[in-house]
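Tutorial handout. Part one gives the primary structure; part two gives the three-dimensional structure as tokens.
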Amino acid sequence: MEKKMAFNLWDQMRWTEQMVLAGTPLAGTVGAPSDPGGLPGLSNIRAYRYNSVTREFEGNTIITSSEVQHSYNDGLYETITPANGVIFYIRADGGIVYYGDNGLPRMATQDMIWNPNFTTNPTSEDDDEAPDGGDSGAQSTHEGTVFINLGSHALFVTATFATTGNDVITKGGFVYGEGGHDSLIGSSGADHLNGGDGNDWLDGGAGGDLLDGGAGWDVVSYLLSSTSGVVVNLTTNENSGAATGDRLLNIELVEGTNYGDTITGVLREGGHGVELSGKGGNDYLIGKEGADRLYGGDDNDWMFGGQGADTIDGGNGWDVASYLGMSSGINVNLTTNENGGAAQGDQVLNVEVLQGTDYNDILTGVDRGGGIGVQLYGEGGADNLTGKGGGDYLYGGSGADWLDGGWGSDILVGGSGTDTFAFTAALGSGNVDDIRDFTVSDNDKIVLSRHVFTSVGLGVLSSAAFTAGVGATTAEHRIIYNQATGDLSYDADGSGALAAVKFAAMSAAGAQLSASNFYVM
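Part two.
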């Protein structure tokens, strides 16, 4: 693969060409300077030109620098004319002024210019259009030659190239990966890394960098170079923290730091999503409309997939999958991952907290083992919350909610509205739920499964089957409410020989419960 650059150098300027390579050089030359003569409009100034700087490589190559540096500060005009197809970057430590062919100034710009195909620049005094470009510099869209007045400042022209193989490049400035699966690592300054074709990995280092993945599946990583968290928004490119000043383009995966990050995705062309990886720290990962993949990593993370069929994986720690803000309700089952509604197609893994929407949701937990449950938050709407094994925490929020803790010692909080607390799992000492906010005036209900409470008749509990006291005093008593402690027990034979079994505790001891507060189904 051949790479060429040609530089026009004005008289009395001295340049040195430096190239440090690791790999297998096949060929390499630096052309001798020639004197093409003076140019119109610039009297008594002549140009020297290097015909080419050519290098050719094969295989996997590590390129650390390819630099041409001006060694004098005499303020004369410099002409830079690379050959077609060259990727390069120009930096001056003072302001840069463009000149047309007649030597008249056309525009002032920043201290850096870059262009992935630099044969296009202003050509006449009538051409005063400002160049297009990003925060890291400017690029022009005009044919011709660029003249740069450096004043008393030094000029550096840096071009770093990869091959079509799998490259590892550790030089800052402008770095272009070409083909293959490349790893591009920037410096502490403002770098421009372009992965080119292939699946590339980019780490800009410190400084405000332009990170462009190019074609393929490309990664921007902040894991190795950051000493604090990042705020990265692929949609707005308003980034801060350790990513201050960075611009990310054509990126499919953002890898965070070992600190607390906030990373927001983007809807890619064709309706595709992105991958967001929080790594360490307490992270916020926010998907958009496409099919996103969110990986919390270590520590306690909060994840919102947004629209689309998303994969939400909390990883280690205590992690939240939130759907609050969706425009319709969801049906999420952490046990089967057969999800519907606004969660259609989602896969929700390794999360400890599931937060619903402001609409009617169906949320089902999962048995995590070891007696550890999950937390289900219904938020708004009439929600159906069902725990599994372990000690679950169910919070209905506003609306008329249904809460069933399943097996395990669960905490049930209905919130506002008329709520129902259901008991459908086999009774035992390890299955005693805590009802935190049963409110008689809200017409809250306690529903008992006939499959568990087998000696109780269906429908509204009969007054003969209910007693408020410390135990059954008749053969008909089945549900016993101890007002002093708030305990609820079931006695299968009333005042018979069988012992009563506690199945719930009312935190609001002393509530005026009656048989009408219970329903058997």
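Part three, for discussion. The chain has no helices and 49 strands. The CA atoms of residues 170 and 185 lie 5 Å apart.
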